[in-house]
């Protein structure tokens, strides 16, 4: 990724904001109307959590009746945040380390927007050629490398498990399906 491009350049400034006391059903309707997968939970202007699609599904399976639940029943309080001045490489590292699909962009305690995996991918080509380091420490032009070997994708030896849908390189035929080792063990 280009080191000159910052989170602020690619983040989504429009986000769904809700309160802890809002009804979860209303929040889900708001997410659907806005075609969003995350709602930022605020107390006043202060960030206190997020509610994602995964949080709502977990509550439906394990929690109280969704029709009576509040946002606070489903929200995740430990929110990965990033400052708007952070470079995309650092933001991608943070996202990977926290195993998160999104980061809330904050200026102090206030949320400014959301940075998603898609935003990172969209921002990778902004600002000119993308540089990467090869094994020897020399700086090379990643775009030239990709043009030289455009047929290599890195997924040649992987396919999708027919039971769980994950990418796996160790698929085997079992009862007429290609399954990963985890699904074969079940």
Description:
By secondary structure, the chain is α+β, with helices and mostly antiparallel strands. The protein has two domains: 7-123, Roll (CBS-domain); 156-186. Helix content is 30%, strand content 26%. The chain is built from eight helices and twelve strands. The protein has helices at residues 7-10, 24-33, 53-62, 71-74, 88-97, 117-123, 142-148, 181-184, and strands at 16-19, 38-43, 46-52, 81-82, 102-107, 110-116, 131-133, 139-141, 159-160, 167-168, 172-174, 177-179. The strands form five sheets. Strands 1-2-3 form a three-stranded mixed sheet. Strands 4-5-6 form a three-stranded mixed sheet. Strands 7-8 form a two-stranded antiparallel ribbon. Zn(2+) binds at residues 161, 164, 180, 183. This is CBS domain-containing protein. Residues 11-67, 75-130 form the CBS domain. Residues 156-186 form the ACP-type MB domain. InterPro entries: ACP_MB, CBS_dom, CBS_dom_sf, Diverse_CBS-Domain.
Which percent band covers the strand fraction?
25-35%
Question: Could you state the order of secondary-structure elements as H and E?
Answer: HEHEEHHEHEEHEEHEEEEH
- Secondary-structure content class: alpha+beta
CATH class of the largest domain: Alpha Beta
CATH superfamily of the largest domain: CBS-domain
**Mean pLDDT metric:** 81
- Overall geometry: flat
Strand order of the largest sheet: 1-2-3
At CATH level 3, the topology of the largest domain is CBS-domain
Radius of gyration: 20 Å
Question: What's the CATH architecture of the largest domain?
Answer: Roll
Give the termini distance in whole angstroms: 40 Å
Distinct helical segment count: 8
- Helix proportion of residues, in percent? 25-40%
Number of strands: 12
* Low-pLDDT residue spans: 130-150
């Amino acid at each position: 990724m280009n080191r000159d491009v910052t989170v602020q350049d690619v983040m989504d400034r429009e986000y769904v904001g809700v309160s802890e006391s809002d009804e979860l059903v209303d929040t889900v309707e708001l997410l659907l109307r806005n075609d969003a997968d995350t709602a930022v939970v605020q107390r006043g202007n202060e960030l206190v959590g997020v509610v994602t699609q995964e949080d709502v599904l977990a509550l439906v399976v394990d929690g109280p009746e969704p029709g009576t639940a509040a946002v606070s029943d489903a929200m995740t309080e430990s929110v990965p945040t990033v400052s708007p001045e952070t470079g995309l490489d650092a933001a991608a590292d943070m996202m990977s380390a926290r195993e998160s699909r999104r980061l809330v962009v904050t200026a102090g305690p206030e949320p400014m927007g959301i940075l998603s995996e898609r935003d990172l991918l969209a921002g990778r080509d902004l600002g000119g050629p993308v540089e990467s380091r090869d094994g020897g420490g020399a700086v090379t032009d990643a775009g030239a490398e990709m043009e030289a070997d455009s047929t290599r994708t890195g997924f040649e030896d992987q396919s999708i498990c027919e039971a769980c849908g994950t990418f796996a390189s160790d698929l085997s035929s079992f009862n007429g399906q290609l399954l990963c080792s985890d699904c074969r063990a079940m």
